[in-house]
Amino acid sequence: MDAILLQILNGLDKGSAYALIALGLTLIFGTLGVVNFAHGALFMIGAFCAVTFRGLLTLSHKATEPSGTDFLGNPKFDDVLYVQQWFGESTGAWMIDWAVPLSVLFAIPVMIAIGFIMERGLIKHFYNRPHADQILVTFGLAIVLGELIKYFYGANPYPSPAPAAFAGSFDFGAMLGFDPNTIIYPYWRLIYFCFAAVVIGAVFAFLQFTTFGMVVRAGMADRETVGLLGINIDKRFTFMFGLAAAVTGVAGAMYAPINSPNYNMGMDFLVLSFVVVVVGGMGSLPGAVLAGFLLGVVESFASMAGVLEIIPGINQIIIYLVAIIILLTRPRGLMGRAGVMED
Taking all residues of the chain, what is their mean pLDDT, rounded to a whole number? Predict the structure, then answer.
């Protein structure tokens, strides 16, 4: 039982990242009808927002030490962090320690701006083009973005530590009545799952309970009719592209302590995110979230040592096998709508 619970926790952890990326991807496809193969790159950029924000917080300048001079009579200099100089030593140290959570506030406007630029500068020219054209141009954009990150940040991963308060592990088993140290799980992975749940809930609440969201959902169902009512649905869909980029970006920023950001991490999540979207059903937001968590749990169980002893390497292909089985039995995915990508 303890091994099963541990794998469920691992699956929810992986599924949180899959679900957030797939949610943003489905928002774009459901509103604009664009197959965005650059979406994994947005996850990568979000992770590097955390790296950049921490770099800004650790900027320093040389200042003369009050202790005097060295043995040669030269003045001593010390590195003084700007953030500690401006906000005080204790507050500055706290901000650096909590750089990853605080980077979410930095990532949101940055990712919205990037989303607007992508949509207005490139994506809008491919609305009426075949999906194959959309895939080619967005995949090329993903490669360009990856190479830009490699040029400015290098090829090596950037460690992004979680706050010291969440650096350890939580005795999950003891809370459930198991023996101590039976189920130990990192705090930050639990935080990431809770964060994903909050973001997913906020997106669904926005679409369900706000006037803006209801108009967007109506436009997703029948864009032409909404346009005939005098509503500029294109502007609302452009905003949704920015929102989708922000959702994926903050997912990447909070994921930085789990997987050190590198220029190739967008490609690592790209194919998996599309598998999640297809399994959930193209254009279905609940389907994307459900499939994300489902495939995360399935992949986690397939990674167990006992399973790998019986079927070596099954953890590398299990997601694709599940996708094949689901699509053979339900061609539209778990919660797909009729007519989506069936022309």
Answer: 84
User: Beta strand 184-186 with 169-171: parallel, antiparallel or unpaired?
Assistant: antiparallel
pLDDT at residue 331 in the model: 82
Sign, CA torsion 191/202/158/60: negative
Confidence of residue 71 (pLDDT cuts 50, 70, 90): low
In the numeric block, which tokens belong to residue 46?
A: 């979000």
Dist CA 78 CA 88 (whole Å): 17
Please report where in the chains the tokens 């790998």 appear, as a residue. Answer: 308
Instruction: Give dist(CA 87, CA 1) in Å, integer.
Output: 49
Assess whether pLDDT exceeds 70 at residue 74: no
CA–CA separation, 111 vs 145, rounded Å? 13
Let me know if 9 is exposed, middle or buried by CB neighbors in 10 A (0-12, 13-18, 19+): buried
At 334, phi and psi to the nearest 5?
-65, -40
What pLDDT sits at residue 11? 84
As a whole number of angstroms, the distance between CA 8 and CA 186 comes to 14
What residues have CB less than 8 Å from 76, skipping those under 6 apart?
64, 65, 67, 68, 69, 70
- Rounded to the nearest 5°, which phi and psi values hold at 68? 120, -130
In the chain, the amino acid numbered 92 is G
Q: Measure CA 337 to chain center.
A: 25
